[in-house]
Specification:
Two copies of one chain form a homodimer. Chain A is α+β, with helices and mostly antiparallel strands and about 110 residues long. Chain A is about 60% helix and about 15% strand. Chain A has a two-stranded antiparallel sheet with strand order 1-2. In chain A, α2 packs across α5. Chain A is globular and about 55 Å long. The model of chain A has no long low-confidence stretch (mean pLDDT about 90). At the A-B interface, α1, α2, α3 and α5 of A face α1, α2, α3 and α5 of B. Chain A binds a DNA duplex (30 and 30 nucleotides) through α4 and β2.
DNA sequence: TTTTGGTACTTTGTGATACAAGGTATTATA
DNA sequence: TATAATACCTTGTATCACAAAGTACCAAAA
């Protein structure tokens, strides 16, 4: 098992992705490719094969809904929208994230 | 699939565990039960079935070594010690953690 | 001296999930 | 009517955290 700097980042972000998606959709609705672009801009690379099943899982959990919209530049886009339940979940995740940051900080103390 | 607050925390910390272990062992050598105690004190619950294989993986990667030590209170303990390679890895992880915190922060900006 | 309880290390099976790779479908343009 | 670009989806694989059960050592009580 290799352990390059890239692998370290990949490892570390596991489980945080779901949080990122909800955070993005809490700002504005978006379709998958746009979400990937925003993640890339924030320095977190995600591939389609990861994102699509994740969006479907969150939709099935009632955290998101979606609607189709025509595009002038290709096939129709599936715009995802965060739901009330999704916002509740996001609030929990905000809390969990704060705690995780605190936990790491505590562990670093000598 | 349930999604309690506890599950959220569990999900989120995936991949961060390895970082936590190296951070603890960078302060002082320790055996598994003591590591679990320190994690619990920092609000991160981990069970034996998770920790032992993880320590073995890190040892096999050359990040840790160990030595046996007698105990007055039961069977001998396996004390793990971080290696030079482990410290290098930890430095990379410190960087990756900083970036991840930054990434989340960026995604939260409207 | 046998049993009991506590401590510590280990293994097996399961479910979740990120990714690589490949596939389908729509639209515009050459 | 190809071709390229865009967009969505699926399958197979590897990894990993966890639950649960097992093994081994030691000391103190019965």
């Amino acid at each position: 098992m290799e352990n390059t700097a890239e692998n370290v980042r990949a490892q570390m972000r596991k489980g945080v992705l779901e949080y990122c998606i909800l955070s993005i959709l809490n700002k504005r609705e978006a379709y998958a490719s746009a979400i990937i672009e925003e993640l890339k801009a924030a320095n977190m690379i995600v591939v389609e094969g990861t994102l699509y099943p994740l969006l479907i899982r969150q939709k099935n959990q009632g955290l998101l809904s979606y609607r189709w919209e025509e595009s002038t530049q290709g096939p129709p886009r599936k715009y995802y929208v965060i739901s009330d339940k999704g916002r509740e979940q996001l609030a929990q995740m905000d809390e969990a994230w704060k705690e995780l940051v605190e936990t790491i900080s505590t562990l670093k103390e000598k």
